[in-house]
Amino acid sequence: MKESSNNILVIDIGGSHVKATILTNKGKVVQDYQKVETPAKANPKSLMTAIKTLVKKFPAFDKIAVGFPGFIKQGVVFTAPNLDSKAFKKFNLSKAIAKELKKPVRLVNDADLQGFALIKGKGLEMVITLGTGFGTALFMDGNLLPHLELAHLPVVKGQDYDDFIGDAALKKDGEKKWNKKLQEVLNTFDTVVNYDHLYLSGGNTRYINFKLGTNVSVENNREGIKGGVKLWKIKESYSVKTVNP
């Protein structure tokens, strides 16, 4: 593989698909967005196989940005609720990807990654992703705040937000009931977080059928993967760590 000039491989790992693209450090597309299905109950080995298959024929890149559906602390996975959470617990996925693909890696929660592409960088901004599960990210004046697994707050007896409003709930409840529940959820976070702006992303946003507040917008899910460029522009911090091969 030849050396490139500041190209960034961006990988967005989801509960249903693993997506990837290559962008320049200015956000220009070098490799069109591609995806493969996420292995059922994916563990580190099967996930790495999917990633290698996906990027096998991609052009050269110098850095890697990764979004992962779980709690990440400085590149290490602590939870993976829609994958094999037990297998991923305290697994250093950043190190594994860096070693396998031989490039430096920055890995954050998938909602955090999407947020970098969506936010305007002013005030308190929140991102909620509606896909396999329920993801959240918070930013203050463009800076990523420490990730909170708000998806695992209890909502009703025996259910957290992942259970209450995730993809399984949509399929079980139907669109009408799911939309009513989503309105309740958004009202709760509006009251609790008091964000200046909320960005909604993820495949299930297409089912929203009620009027949103003036400080709420629905964003293109595919655009979120471009957050990998901004992830590499910011300084390392408690929330963002560079792991080298």
What key phrases describe this protein's structure?
245 residues, alpha/beta, 15 strands, 29% helix, globular
Please provide a written account of the structure.
The protein is of the alpha/beta class. The protein folds into two domains: 8-112 and 238-243, 2-Layer Sandwich (Nucleotidyltransferase, domain 5); 117-223, ATPase, nucleotide binding domain (Nucleotidyltransferase, domain 5). Helices cover 29% and strands 28% of the residues. The chain has eight helices and 15 strands. The protein has helices spanning 44-55, 85-88, 93-101, 110-118, 161-165, 167-173, 175-193, 227-231, and strands at residues 8-13, 17-23, 29-37, 63-68, 72-73, 76-77, 105-109, 124-130, 134-140, 143-144, 154-156, 159-160, 197-201, 216-218, 242-243. Strands 3-2-1-4-7-15 form a six-stranded mixed sheet. Strands 10-9-8-13-14 form a five-stranded mixed sheet. A hairpin with a 3-residue loop joins strand 8 (124-130) and strand 9 (134-140). Helix 6 (167-173) crosses helix 7. The longest helix has 19 residues, at 175-193. The chain is globular and about 45 Å long. The model has no long low-confidence stretch (mean pLDDT 93).
